[in-house]
């Protein structure tokens, strides 16, 4: 699929294809949806099976489940404060969904659903609606003072207010573009260097030796991508918490 | 238990006053990655603010029939918002326990 007529085709990996035969085709059930389902099932399985033992000294699964739980809990409470505990399930769900999407996408033959802007923007838009609703519910009309900092001269209002509004509206856009671009860039790089391996491998006698170079790059890239996959999920969760902090406290 | 928590808080405040917690400043902020990562984040902030500004301008122009004036205005506003986003990215912001402002 990657090498067709000796050209590099790095983008066809993001194409959606229906799965599950005729049923999937009729309802538009693509492999992206399939991987979302798998990710959801894996998350539930990790938490349910991991916490089944409820041992005082945790086993491996229980330890990982507890570690992730406490990691996200510390993140949310550290950013939002004590009242942030009620948002913990939301941030935890987001974090796990993005993390598993990124990580599953690194497996061979798997699809990265976070590499589609529709998915990441959908997630970011949910965050945006939530922070706006929370801010409006907690502060009412006082929320709109967020767009005009105290102490600024009044004649600057026509400049400051549009800028602040655009800055506020750009939050979901930057949140989604960051995740989407990181995932796309990583997978395109992997595909390009993998194609180099195949193309250089066919160079006769010296082929295998030259092809070892992009292969080495790809091995390093996979390690780097694991880091990016975790880091982007973390950034998504922490930015959500920062926005929630702004919504709860205003400024 | 509540007493313990109060003690921890006071200890932390005292340590922060004496400047004994250098880690306090970076705690809770975004992870400071490589220079490439920082550059990429700043770029994303500028581009997204520009996208929002231009989209707002075009939509308002379509609605009010004032093409291209609001588009031009909101292009500038989007650029300013992008610079503001980058400025906010680099101003240190601590966790929920910050008291300034």
Automatic annotation (TrEMBL), chain A:
This protein's record includes keyword tRNA processing: no
Q: Where are the transmembrane segments?
A: 34-51, 87-111, 117-137, 188-213, 219-244
* Compartment(s) where it occurs, according to its Swiss-Prot or TrEMBL record: Cell membrane; Membrane
UniProt membrane topology term: Multi-pass membrane protein
Going by the entry's taxonomy, the superkingdom of the source organism is recorded as Bacteria
InterPro entries the UniProt entry points to: ATP_synth_F0_asu (IPR000568), ATP_synth_F0_asu_AS (IPR023011), ATP_synth_F0_asu_bact/mt (IPR045083), F0_ATP_A_sf (IPR035908)
Keywords tagged on the record: ATP synthesis, Cell membrane, CF(0), Hydrogen ion transport, Ion transport, Membrane, Transmembrane, Transmembrane helix, Transport
Q: What does this protein do?
A: Key component of the proton channel; it plays a direct role in the translocation of protons across the membrane.
In terms of PANTHER family, this protein maps to: ATP SYNTHASE SUBUNIT A (PTHR11410)
Question: Which protein family is it in?
Answer: Belongs to the ATPase A chain family.
- Please identify the protein, giving its name as recorded: ATP synthase subunit a
Q: Which organism is it from?
A: Plastoroseomonas hellenica
Name of the gene: atpB
From TrEMBL, chain B:
Chain segments annotated as transmembrane: 42-60, 66-90
For this protein, the record's InterPro entries field holds:
ATPase_put
Sorted UniProt keywords: Membrane, Transmembrane, Transmembrane helix
A Pfam family matched by this chain, by name? Answer: ATPase_gene1
Question: From which domain of life does this come?
Answer: Bacteria
Which residue intervals are annotated with compositional bias (Basic and acidic residues) in the record?
1-11
In this chain, the stretch annotated as Disordered covers: 1-31
**UniProt protein name:** AtpZ/AtpI family protein
